[in-house]
Amino acid sequence: MRCLFALSADYGEFVTANLLSRGQPFERRFALPPALAAQAGGLDGVSAYASTSELRAIIDRERPDAVVLASGYLFALNNLFGPDELASLVAQLRGRGIALATTDPWLRLRAVKPQTRLAIYSMRRGGVDEAQSEKVLALQRRLEGILGALPHWLAVPAPLAQSSFNPSFARPAQAAKDVDEWLLVLSQQDLNYLAQEAFFASLRARVEDLLGAPRNRLRFVGPAPLGRFLAANFAGEPRIEYLAYCDFAAFEAAVLRARVVAYWNALSASALYCLYHGVAPVFFGKGHQAKVCEGLYEHAVEHVYRGAPPPMLAFERPFEVDAAALIASHGIPAWLDRIRHDYARLPPPSRILEALCSR
Prior knowledge:
The protein has helices at 11-19, 34-37, 52-62, 83-95, 109-112, 130-147, 188-192, 196-211, 224-234, 248-257, 271-277, 288-292, 296-303, 323-329, 332-343, 349-358, and strands spanning 2-7, 27-32, 46-48, 66-70, 99-102, 121-122, 127-128, 153-154, 162-163, 180-185, 216-221, 240-243, 260-263, 280-283. With 359 residues, the chain is of the alpha/beta class. It has two domains: 2-164 and 347-358, Rossmann fold; 180-343, Rossmann fold (3-Layer(aba) Sandwich). The strands form four sheets. It has a five-stranded parallel β-sheet, with helices on both faces. Strands 12-11-10-13-14 form a five-stranded parallel β-sheet, sandwiched between helices. Strand 13, helix 11 (271-277) and strand 14 (280-283) form a beta-alpha-beta unit. Helix 4 packs parallel to helix 6.
């Protein structure tokens, strides 16, 4: 079988597609918008598209047995193409007998609770833009009308979804024995929601705390304002590395080398790499998705985290900077093991794909 993953511009959707396909007994192909294609590195089976006509041409050339939209709910939000073009694409693929599925950034919450509200933050207004929120909510309802009847395939357990676990995905962690690498991951969207002055004041204090432990090495992946702050305050510090750009393979390799991966978003898809590879994640906030979609964090705790909330640290206050002590105090290895044990009961991706194609 051959499966084509047609991705939106969201980095996390590649993580999902990777988890659904790597090491599985089927051929995988990727259709990526230019911004993501630039991060593909040497990944095999990648084609770039900038319009639905180019995406259709890729599908014609690759002749997949199945197409997974990752995510059908994000193409319009990412300004790739609108709902009318999406509806036409879905109708065409279904008419040709190509198996079709979508991922869902809301983890099927809106299918379970259709009354769920969305709150879109405006940088200009410094708060929620009610008019824009209603506009995006109307768009989501339109997309649900187009995609609602399709199978929804997720890399995490969720109601009303086809969920899978990929036992072939995990690689042995490569954390060094003589140092503790901390990988700190901050997206532009999450930075937008933070009180900038207070955040950067806390960041300076926490970096100084972390550097107080000689074993610690810090690697940051984040937007340009983060890089400028580090350059202005910690220039020449050999134990700090800042990456403005990190392709797919390099990011996963950084997770594998880390002793701790710290996020400002408890709903980050790449935290699943920590689950698969057995690397300790910690979180400094629920993240922008939880702020946009009411109830999404609680929904994720129930299903994604199997009822056990993720380890949450208060970034504005000192925390344990000895990695081993931090990991032990929060019981992270046992927490990861419990979640992974639950996930391991899910069918492998190949079985989900077989079922999709048999329809």
